[in-house]
Amino acid sequence: MQCRRVPLIFRLCDPTLGRMRTLEILTEGGVIDSEHSPAKPQPNFSVIVTCYNKEATIEAAIRSAHQQGGDVEIIVVDDKSGDASRTILAGLEVDKVILHETNKGALGAYLTGFRAATGRILVMLDGDDRLAPGILPALAKTGWLNETTCVRLGMTTADDNTELASVDTPLKCAGTFRPGRLFILCQSTGGTAYVFPKVLFDQADTGLAGWWPQITVQDHVLPGMIGLLAKRFIKLKTTGYYMAQAGDGMTLGAQTAVTHHDRLLSDYAILCAAEGPLRQGPVSRFMLRLALFKRMRKLARRYRFKTPISFKHVRPSNARHATIQDLAKIIK
Question: Please, what's the b/e burial string for 79-115 (b: 16 or more CB within 10 A of its CB; e: otherwise)?
């Protein structure tokens, strides 16, 4: 049964906030009629916060989104948390909370949030990470943000108790990639900290007909797909994104095998998209094939995969090639 976004909206009056807010639930099944919230002016930014068992950190993540000024829409997608995250979310000031009835992984949670967003620019934020105070207003002042440009914020780790300093302007740029696909060919694109126009996401989502690879943790498939369409990708040197420190069992760094599995499928999905709906030139397609080939060789050695890996295994015509599927199964 396919999942549809159901506009079941509850008016919740939080006495600590003194105003009404919206809670939207994502369910499997039919559509339930609802009373919609009043229309608002389109915000410049939509910060999508994904949450899965983040009871200890979700409040700090949302607080960091509030520290970006008033031109921000905050959407939280809870991916069926089993802890107290949903209880905590009920008392926080956000524009929209969307609750998954089944766990869909971080990629699925981000896709839900992106599709529900109304802002011109989308911002990715994991529920255990934080945005630097004022990074989005500072970015808006640069004039870099438009319908064809993506930005990756400078990243570092920080303890949960660390007080984050406000961003100083002007922002420092570590590199610019034209066209945007050069970024995904030359850089490690895992993680979040991405800021990009909603119109590019909509183009990718439409071109892929809503199909995205079935992966567990969010890796580089989102910036990879969008990078295929971007005319420019800017990598900031200025730190604008603070990640949770390694050691927590739920952090990406603590899920090595799952990350390798998803990275492999992400690479392959990006290559197939470049050959198909998000059509790219022959040089880009060759470079993506080469990158996937190198990753397959590396992972095959690490996980002692016995089948020899050859360049023919990464041809898009072999979209269901058993070698790639078998390697993915062994890794996971």
Answer: bbbeeebbebbeebebbbbbbbeeebbbbbbbbbbbe
